[in-house]
Amino acid sequence: MEYIVLFILFIAIELIYFKIADKFDIIDKPNARSSHTAVTLRGGGIIFPVAVIIACFLGYVSWEIAVAVTLVGIISFIDDIKPLSQWPRFASHVIAVGLVFYDLNLFSEAIWLLPIIFILMIGWMNAFNFMDGINGITVLYSLIAILSFAILPVNQVDLPLLITMGLSGLVFGIFNVRKKAKTFAGDVGSISMALFLGFLMIKTIIETQQLGFILFFSVYGIDAVITIINRLTKRENIFQAHRSHLYQYLANEKGFPQVLVAISYALIQLFINVSVIYMDKIGCLSTYVVGLLLASFALIYIVIRKLVLRQIDIK
A cellular component term (GO) from this record (predicted)? Predict the structure, then answer.
């Protein structure tokens, strides 16, 4: 009954936000780099930080994580309305990651480890944001990640939190996983969800001592990293909006339906996650195997990317 109430509450919050966004013209107008062609309400992903705040009041998550997600959510929402310089955004990310470190007691770990985790978290948040480019991809990928974390025995104590966030994702998906989306997540949605998922990843790895769960983010990670490397080789500004991710080529140049591409990314990641969970269960998910899998996934991605680019005649 509690989760039904939450689901209804999230729908009400989204509908209220739509009224506000429409009144104050918080919209996403298509441009040359967009994958959409119609004016769409921006910032529907505000439901994600709202869900974390509600989860905090219900005792499902600590105040540190709630403050961290809320902070990046607020700054990102302001950036959605009126673009900010990089410094306020970066500062909010640094503070938020620091709160995650504090919550997970990471400051007691080896000092050399902290910069590595910090860089990975900042990189993950920005990569996740860059990947938010077509209808459904962010929310479907997030739901797969939340489901995967929920399956793990170590996270059973956090099921109320995971269900709450999953419900917020389902509600957002109702308005986003469409041929013509009612709303986009915006930076407020993608950045706050990225921070939340990054928190779950670090927590899970610490509690299981299994680095292999990093593969839960492999599809997004490989696409983002290889795309960045490709853009750097072309001397492009990697902080500017673009349409050079593989999923964008598939949706824009190849003409596959955006929702189909988003579902494909989610299902591929789900298959990987189920395989990772099984390998961990039977005790064969060693560091060597994880490295081999990552290299294999990257090679497969590169081959597919090259084939697609050759078909659409892009160098």
Answer: plasma membrane
pLDDT single digits (tens) 28-77: 766 545 554 566 899 999 999 999 999 999 999 999 999 999 999 999 99
Rounded Cα–Cα distance for residues 59 and 57 (Å): 5
Place of tokens 């439901």: 47
Q: Domains of the chain: which residue ranges?
A: 2-311
- Cα–Cα distance for residue pair 154/141, rounded to 1 Å: 21
Backbone angles phi, psi at 36, to 5 degrees: -115, 160
Q: How far apart, in Å, are the Cα atoms of 46 and each of 42, 49, 89, 113, 245?
A: 9, 6, 16, 32, 25
Whole-angstrom distance, CA of residue 244 vs CA of residue 276 = 29
CA atoms of 122 and 64, how far apart (whole Å): 17
Distance, in Å, from the CA atom of 173 to the CA atom of 139, rounded to the nearest integer, reads 6
Q: Is 187 annotated as a binding residue?
A: yes
Task: Determine the 3-state secondary structure of 64 from DSSP.
Answer: helix
Long-range contacts of 271-276 (CB under 8 A, 24+ apart): 272/215, 272/216, 272/218, 272/219, 272/297, 273/144, 273/145, 273/148, 273/215, 273/216, 274/148, 276/212, 276/213, 276/215, 276/216
Nearest by Cα to 279 from 291, 267, 290, 266: 290
Which pLDDT value is given to residue 32? Answer: 47
Helix (H, G, I), strand (E, B) or coil at 28: strand
Round the CA-based radius of gyration of the chain to a whole number and report it.
Answer: 19
Instruction: End-to-end CA distance of the chain: give it in Å, rounded.
Output: 54
Q: How far is CA 141 from the centre of its chain?
A: 7
**Is 273 labelled a binding residue?**
no
Give the residues across from 28 on adjacent strands.
40
Can you tell me whether residue 152 is helix, strand or coil? Answer: coil
* Residue ranges of the chain with per-residue pLDDT less than 70: 29-39, 314-315
The per-residue pLDDT for range 129-161, each reduced to its tens digit, is 989 989 999 999 999 999 999 999 999 999 999
**pTM of the predicted model as reported, rounded to 2 decimal places:** 0.95
